[in-house]
Amino acid sequence: MPIVxxxxxxxxxxxxxxxxxxxxxxxHTVYAVNGDQYTGEWLDNLKHxxxxxxxxxxxxxxxxxxxxxxxxxxxxxxxxxxVTKEYKKVYxxxxxxxxxxxxxxxxxxxxxRYEGEWSxxxxxxxxxxxxxxxxxxxxxxxxxxxxxxxxxRLPNENRYEGGWKGGKKHGPxxxxxxxxxxxxxxxxxxxxxxxxxxxxxxxxxxPSPTQYPIPKx
Length: 217
Fold this sequence. Notes:
It is found in: Cytoplasmic vesicle, Secretory vesicle, Acrosome. By secondary structure, the protein is mainly β. It has one helix spanning 13-21; strands at 25-31, 37-43, 46-54, 61-67, 70-80, 87-96, 99-107, 113-119, 122-130, 136-142, 145-153, 159-165, 168-177, 182-189, 192-200. A 15-stranded antiparallel beta sheet has the order 1-2-3-4-5-6-7-8-9-10-11-12-13-14-15, with no helix packed on it. Strand 9 and strand 10 form a beta hairpin. It is elongated, with a radius of gyration of 29 Å. It starts with 12 loop residues before the first helix and ends in a 17-residue tail after the last strand.
């Protein structure tokens, strides 16, 4: 009985190319059409695991955790200095859904620094802000502004402790004028004290006390 040989079906080349193009696990640097590059782990063609992304347009670098194509977990974001061209960290901390979320530290161009909680890419929760003039705010934040209870300490050590709303002093609060040895306690609205009492507070230790003490009522 004669043996009939059937021609072996050849697989289209694009099938092989497609298999090789599938990204899963640790891969070498992969370049996007726009010039961005990513080196790290993949899952089902999405950045997933540990990896480093470099954006061609801004030359910014993110190195850290990824989850299904988005920054998620712990990582740091850096940009090149426009003058020295050396990289400087902008943010180090936690991410979720490609946004800052959780605890992290941000360095601003004007020598400001924020250490605290984030939500949806905005300062929200508890945090401490260092300002260029030496002032420090520590307390609650909501959508990038002091909101809730917090303390603002000025360079001359005077400080405000109390309520905040939308970045301004609001509600019951105390302002310690330690340079003059006085304390104002009252109610604030939109950064303006509306009513309260002013008393001597540590006047004997104050560096610049008032000429006369406040008489007791």
